[in-house]
Amino acid sequence: MFPRVPVSVPVNDNMSESAPSSRLATRPPRVHPTVRLGFLTRISIYPFSFVLFGVHMWARAVPAWIWVLFVLHQWIWPHVARRIARRSADSQAAELRNLLVDAVVIGCFAPVAQYSLWPNAAAFLGILSGNISVGGPRFAARGVVVYLLGAGVMTLYTGFHPDLFGASRFTQMAGPIFVGAYLCVFAWLTYDRQRSMVRINRTMRQQHAEIKEQDYLLKLHAAELEEALVAAQSASAAKSNFLANMSHELRTPLNSIIGFGNILLRNSAGTLQEQELLYLSRLRNNGLRLLSLINGVLDLTKVDALQSTLKTQPVDVGALLRETLAELEPQAELRNVELVAELADTGLLATDICRLRQIMLNLLSNAVKFTSAGTVTVRLLADPETRLPSRIEVSDTGIGIAADRLDAVFEPFQQEDDTTARLYGGTGLGLTIT
């Protein structure tokens, strides 16, 4: 019984099947904790810095564009910096760049404030400690360099007019308060981050313990499955050995029965009547069908037990297919089936002629059996370079196989459905052995 599409039998092993390509989903980049820490530090400390520098600059009649730069850095820049870092592929590196921008701008305000001690000391210590905590000493050194760079550029523009102690009393008092507030805020944010890390570590330890437990259970389950597999293999081997021995023992007396039946059918003495010859003919035919079933079971058990051997020799595949079709011609004529051979001119193929004949006989006899008043076609294709046989295709115009039964019909003792077995007979071993 065949599907309406051709059933193809490759006769060489130079066909490969490539694995389907898979596309890995990429996760969006995670935001580094330093981004949140930097944002919270800016929005917590910059208001104090705005007041501290603002009071000092107000008394100095600073140009308007410096006030614009000051307001943008103190109130707008924290939000812009966070957005830049969050949208960056490497948020930690982006936050480090943001801190360098802070250092440059803060350095620019040093000459504007005439290098007054307390406001500049508070601002410098703040950015320095932040750079050390986030990027380490080397990064902090880079921050100092860019701070001095910003101070130098602004000095070239405004001139060098130092006044270390020219700040107002309010500024001098607010400076230490600003430093203390900065240290407290930064210490609290660092403490909060450490608490988060502790929670994360605790969760990771719990997950690690659960993974170890699951791993232990999986190993136990794997050991149980291995034991079950060994038991199943032993049972399968015992079954195969039993069937092989039983099939061998059954064939011996059955061959004897069939042989004596053939002798009696000759009716050499002429003493048997027509009805008795009919009974003997039925006895022989049933014996042959039983022998075919036993041979199929024996072949299947040999395949399952890995005991099948191949005896390769040069074979003319085209001649073998013609012989197989000639063997099936009586059966095809009874069913009004046309046998068509489309055979390419090929060279000899090193293969097991008995096994190949068995395969083709199973496929073609099935095609004839399940086709009425139709066509069975066998095609032999050749490799264009070597001219060796590369594929044998068998197709028919019969009843076909339902799509959901294509896998089942290749299982032992399985046919498409019970109706098929009743109408056409068969043991369901041909395709399995093939």
Features of this protein?
434 residues; alpha+beta; 4-stranded mixed beta sheet; two-stranded antiparallel sheet; 10 helices; 6 strands; 66% helix; disordered N terminus
Helix-strand layout with pairing:
Blueprint: E1 7-10, H1 33-58, H2 64-86, H3 91-112, H4 117-158, H5 169-266, H6 274-304, E2 313-315, H7 317-334, E3 338-343, E4 349-351, H8 353-369, E5 375-382, E6 389-396, H9 418-424, H10 430-433
Parallel strand pairs: 3-5
Antiparallel strand pairs: 1-6, 2-4, 5-6
Helix pairs in contact: 1-2, 1-3, 1-4, 1-5, 2-3, 3-4, 4-5, 5-6, 7-8
**Percentage of residues in strands:** 5-15%
**Rg, alpha carbons:** 46 Å
Given helix and strand content, the structural type is alpha+beta
| Overall pLDDT confidence | 79
Unreliable residue stretches: 1-7, 13-28
* Overall outline: rod-shaped
Oligomeric state of the chains in view: single chain
* Biggest beta sheet attributes: 4 strands, mixed
Distance between the termini: 13 Å
Instruction: State the share of residues found in helices, binned by percent.
Output: 55-70%
What is the number of helical segments per DSSP (H or I, 4+ residues)?
10
Count all strands and give the number.
6
- Helix and strand run: EHHHHHHEHEEHEEHH
Order of strands, main sheet, comes to 1-6-5-3
